[in-house]
């Protein structure tokens, strides 16, 4: 697999995993980040940004504890996917 194919496979797995946690994905079409959010969120800040290049999540400090926890879970999943493709 090429690097681009590997990156796309990792991202696809992360998208599916986030959806399994109840998150919807939105893409602003800039190619670098996608945003995961739940339809029943109480605050506009309760969303997770995911970097397609670095396979890493980012949340604001004032996001809910559950969103921060989910971001950490998605990060761990993404790291495992990266390790699977490095072997």
Describe the structure.
This protein is α+β, with helices and mostly antiparallel strands and 87 residues long. It contains two helices and four strands, in the order αββββα. It has helices at 3-20, 65-86, and strands at residues 24-27, 33-37, 47-51, 56-58. Helix 1 runs antiparallel to helix 2 (65-86). The radius of gyration is 13 Å and the shape is globular. The mean pLDDT is 94.
Tally of individual helices: 2
Order of helices and strands: HEEEEH
Estimated helix fraction: 40-55%
Please state the average pLDDT score.
94
Low-confidence stretches: none
Largest sheet report: 4 strands, antiparallel
- Using the CA coordinates, give the radius of gyration: 13 Å
The quaternary organization reads as single chain
- Which sequence of strands runs across the widest sheet? 1-2-3-4
Please identify the structural class as seen in this structure. alpha+beta
* Rough outline: globular
Strand content: 15-25%
The rounded distance between the terminal residues' Cα atoms is: 12 Å
Report the count of strand segments. Answer: 4
Any key phrases for this structure?
alpha+beta; 87 residues; 2 helices
Short précis:
The protein has 87 residues and is of the alpha+beta class. Helix content is 46%, strand content 20%. The chain contains two helices and four strands.
């Amino acid at each position: 697999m090429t690097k681009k194919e590997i990156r796309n496979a990792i991202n696809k797995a992360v998208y599916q995993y986030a959806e399994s946690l109840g998150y919807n994905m939105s893409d602003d079409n800039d190619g670098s980040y996608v945003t995961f959010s739940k339809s029943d969120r109480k605050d506009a800040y309760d969303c997770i940004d995911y970097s397609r290049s670095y396979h890493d999540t980012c949340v604001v400090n004032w996001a809910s504890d559950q969103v921060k926890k989910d971001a950490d879970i998605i990060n761990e999943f993404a790291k495992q996917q990266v390790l699977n493709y490095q072997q």
